[in-house]
Structure formats: structure tokens, C-alpha cells
Design brief:
Elements (H helix, E strand, L loop, with lengths): L4 H8 L10 E4 L2 E8 L2 E6 L3 E7 L6 H4 L4 E5 H18 L4 E7 L8 H11 L5 E3 L5 H14 L9 E9 H6 L1 H10 L7 E7 L13 H6 L4 E2 L4 H18 L3 E6 H5 L1 E5 L13 E2 L2 E2 L10
Helix pairs in contact: 3-4, 3-9, 5-7
Length: 293
């Protein structure tokens, strides 16, 4: 006979989950499994669903969904950052775009491929992915994304620039990144540097830590400890760059880049607190410029 929805749920349900309608008691908490189309949930009567078994989940949901929970790797969470920001900007009435460039290297190897998938899956979002021949060219191109927003013929209110590279790439791109930091970022664009650190030398000749180099470049560092924090702190990095006019760095270590987790995409997770930006009684808005000093 043809499987019913309940049959599929029973086949997918781990053996420790009580049957439909049954109750399990642990720490005085009654849990019930209730099934309502299109999914079944392990229910806590007081707090709601604890676990959801979806029968319509697709891997592309990690990029197509606008809310809810999805399954991501650390690299995929990085690729989700520009999607989140563009969606938030649209709600705010901003016409923004994303430009990514850099040179792949573990532990952030594969980020360029994920960004190519994002651009293909979401053609309505203006995401431009341009892998560079080396890290210096990528950094210079991202610097240009910030200067472009100041031009009268720019089609966007701002362009979010994302540079990526591993620790040795940060070393060799230091001069280009220093110039980019001094050029600055636009209010509705921003620039972040995704730096892959391999402290256990899993796929590197030497262990790496980029903190000192980033401090010397005058970049604030955000250091996520898991996949969810990669997305959350990535959003904070964008706003930090937009408000201060400087680049912000995301330090991504091997275990985070290679890790996996379910991630909450709720846009209200990140509530940016805008500080007082007045200087001498006037609002301060940084404008990027090629006149570095």
C-alpha cells in the first residue's frame, strides 16, 4: 500500500522518540509527538516544538529560505551572510549589491564555489562573484567596490565587498589591504575580510593565527566559535564596517569552517544598536576616498 504521512514519519523517527500520542517523562517534563501535515514535531506542552521532522526540506533551502532553520557548514554560513544582508537592505528600502573577490585556500577553500552557487540559485539578488588570480588583486577589487558607490553613475545605494583568503594570503595581501582600509567603506556598503586560520596545521605547512596581522591593519576582529555565530557575527561585521567606515575581519578557524549545524535564519536575531555618531553636533557619515591621507 502507499505510504501515508504517518508511515513516513514512523520510518524516519529515531527509536528513542515515543510513538504518536504517547508521552515521555524526563525531569518532570511531558513530551508528546504530535503529527500535523506537513511535518511532525516532538512537543513540549509548555515550550512548543523541540524537534521537527520535515518531509519537504531541500538542500537548496539553505540559500532560498528567508526564515526558519537550515542545515549549514561553516563555509555555507559565510555564503549566507550576503544573502541575509541584501534581504535586510531590501526591507529597509535600500538598493544594494554584493561583490566578492579573493583567493581560495583552506580552511576557507570552497567559499568561492559556494558564492557561485548562490549567484546561480538567486539570480534576482545582485551578487557578483569574481575570484582573483591572487589575494592582492582580490583586495584591490573589493576596495574598488567601496569607491564605486561614491561615483555619480553607480546603480546601487551601496555595495557590500567581501574579501577572502587564508592566513598566508593575508600576509601577502597586506599592502593592498592596508590601502583598502585607509580608503574606507561606504555607509550602505561595507567591507569584510574573511580570513581562514589553520591553528592545528590540518592542511597547512605551519600553524597560523592572523590576529596580530589584522590588528596591525587596524581591522576589528570578530571570531565566531560555531556555525550559527559565523552568520550572526558576519552580520555584525557588516554593520560595524558600515558605521565606522573601516574594514572588519572575520577570523574563521578550521573547526568552524569544517563544522556543521542547524542555523536559525530569523532576521530579528540580529538587532543592531546604532550608537551616537555625532561629532561636534553634526552626524558623522564616512565617505570612502582614494585620497588616503
Amino acid at each position: 500500500h502507499e505510504d501515508t504521512h504517518a508511515d513516513r514519519i514512523a520510518r524516519l523517527t529515531p527509536p528513542w522518540v515515543p510513538p504518536v500520542g504517547a508521552s515521555a517523562y524526563s525531569n518532570n517534563c511531558s513530551l508528546k509527538l504530535s503529527h500535523k501535515h506537513p511535518h511532525a514535531s516532538l512537543m513540549d506542552p509548555d515550550r512548543g516544538p523541540l524537534m521537527t521532522l520535515l518531509d519537504n526540506y531541500q538542500l537548496d533551502d539553505r540559500y532560498r529560505s528567508n526564515e526558519g532553520r537550515v542545515y549549514l557548514t561553516g563555509i555555507q554560513a559565510l555564503a549566507r551572510i550576503p544573502i541575509q544582508q541584501l534581504l535586510i537592505d531590501r526591507v529597509a528600502g535600500l538598493n544594494t549589491a554584493v561583490f566578492t573577490s579573493g583567493y581560495p585556500g583552506s580552511p576557507v577553500g570552497g567559499f568561492d564555489l559556494e558564492m557561485a552557487r548562490v549567484a546561480t540559485l538567486l539570480p534576482d539578488l545582485p551578487i557578483f562573484n569574481r575570484p582573483a588570480l591572487n589575494e592582492e588583486l582580490g583586495a584591490t577589487a573589493v576596495m574598488g567596490s567601496q569607491l564605486a558607490s561614491e561615483q555619480p553613475d553607480c546603480r546601487f545605494d551601496g555595495i557590500l565587498g567581501i574579501w577572502y583568503g587564508k592566513a598566508p594570503g593575508l600576509d601577502r595581501a597586506g599592502d593592498a589591504l592596508r590601502h583598502a582600509v585607509f580608503a574606507g567603506t561606504s555607509r550602505h556598503g561595507g567591507a569584510i575580510a574573511i580570513v581562514g586560520d589553520d591553528p592545528i596545521a590540518k592542511s597547512s605547512t605551519l600553524p597560523s593565527s592572523s590576529d596580530a596581522a589584522l590588528v596591525d591593519l587596524h581591522m576589528p576582529i570578530l571570531y565566531p566559535g560555531d556555525v550559527q555565530e559565523t552568520l550572526d557575527l558576519g552580520m555584525h561585521a557588516v554593520m560595524l564596517s558600515r558605521l565606522t567606515g573601516t574594514w572588519a575581519a572575520l577570523k574563521i578557524v578550521t573547526n568552524v569552517a569544517d563544522g556543521t549545524s542547524t542555523v536559525d535564519l530569523s532576521p530579528e536575531r540580529i538587532a543592531t544598536v546604532i550608537p551616537d555618531l555625532e561629532i561636534d553636533g553634526r552626524p558623522h557619515v564616512h565617505h570612502p576616498s582614494g585620497n588616503l591621507i
